[in-house]
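# step 3/5: fold
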Amino acid sequence: MSDAAESHLASAYGRLLTLLADSLHVDAFLDQVVRVAAEVVPPAVACGLTVRRDGGAWTVASSGDLATKGDEIQYGADEGPCLEALRRGHIVEVVDLREDGRWCRYREHALRLGIVSSLSLPMTVDGETVGALNLYATEPAALTGSARRHAEAFAAQGTAALTVILRQADQALLHRQLTDAMASRSVIDQALGVLMGQQRCTAAEAFALLRQASQHRNRKLRDVATEIITQVSGQSPQPAPGFVAPRQQP
């Protein structure tokens, strides 16, 4: 790889890291990834990203109309290079679609769009192929040789970044779930204290009363507890402090 090519890829990796730091949502991150990918591999006219969803395949990000339409043709035909990359988990290269006998239902419509060559690279996260990065070109053999090596290198870095952002999304969900659980527990504990004072009973007996009221009214424990606290204090219960995830040791 030439010094200029290495510099170009290094710049792209830096942009990926910046995107990773700045993107608050997975979809915004993916939208920028396909745009950078199309720039990193100059022969590519457009880049799309296909992912599995609800048992099918969908384009979640695209750098141009050619990629969007190229992906959609494959979904309609239920065949094509990006679907093969997604299903089989290996790189699929099309050197010249005019002479390629694979995917007959896809081939005719893709050529009509102007797609002549393409490269589909699977994105595997934690052992599962979750998506495929699809590069399209209007000239034959546009994505072979050094262009393919650039695409493979970028796809590897993009997959690594995607792994991180998906894990961050999982952690954010866990954080919200823990915070909600703590808030519910706090409200229920406050209501138990009220019942223990009113009924002069133990915590276990107070919880049994609260659960019985919840079942009879067909309402959640937290909602019944909120109503008890509001009736006694005249105010809604105060939320519990937010959950703070422990920092990992360096």
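# step 4/5: annotate
Residues 1-5, 241-250 have pLDDT under 50 and may be disordered.
# step 5/5: archive (pending)
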